[in-house]
Fold this protein.
Amino acid sequence: MADHVLAALLWSLGRVMSAASRIHPALRSQITRTLTFQMSAGETVSQVWEFDAPRRRIRSFRGRTETPDCAVHFRTGWQALRALVSPTTVNRVVAGLHEGSVQLTGSAFVLLWFHGLTRKFFRLGRPAGPRHELPHRYLRVDPTTWGAETVLIEPAVDHLDPTWTAAHRARSTLHQLRSTTGEPVLEP
């Protein structure tokens, strides 16, 4: 029974993601690499997603592929179903990896990326927000609290004023991280 429910869930997820890759800008912006992802459980359930970076499209089909870039295999369909609909999906998968009941081939980062994509469409396992009413200051403006002052929005500038030497001196001490290596680099 769990295998049939899991197969239906994976099939519908594949259909929705495939259709959304044609029109959903947030999803299209996430497809930056051409890769193949495969999720399977037991001996019978398997779904493949092919991500096409040049076209920014997703194609999904049932079955297996010879060489997926990332593949996750659950021992049983019930275990996969419980992991997918759980609010702690990542914890369940990691626990399964430690126990040996889940096998991961490829990068774990691709698995986490795929998990984030699935949550754009099916909010499975997500807790529903706060259970109590928000305080009044978040719902309407209260002039007696801090933050009710007028916020000035100044136009953006490309260059600092050359006569403002203190700003140039302060800017030269700022560090920014080089994203590929994580090393600090002085700002030019």
Notes: The chain has a mean pLDDT of 83.
